[in-house]
Amino acid sequence: MTPDQQDRLIQNIAGSLSQARRDIQMRQICHFFRADINYGRRVAEGLGIEIDASMMPASAQTVNA
């Protein structure tokens, strides 16, 4: 996907999930992190959910630095 397509995808997902309960949002974010760390981070950011770096695997912590 191009960067613009990725941005639109994140916006669409975050927009749709913003109407869901928080527990559902968190469950989905976990799935997105499993697929791709940056994908999960961006969806969480789009939902305004702060992800504690200590919760992420060590390999992911360098991505956010």
From TrEMBL:
Ranges for domain Catalase immune-responsive: 1-47
InterPro entries xref list: Catalase_immune_responsive, Catalase_sf
Domain of life: Bacteria
GO MF term (any one): heme binding
Name of this chain's protein: Catalase immune-responsive domain-containing protein
UniProt source species: Tolypothrix bouteillei VB521301
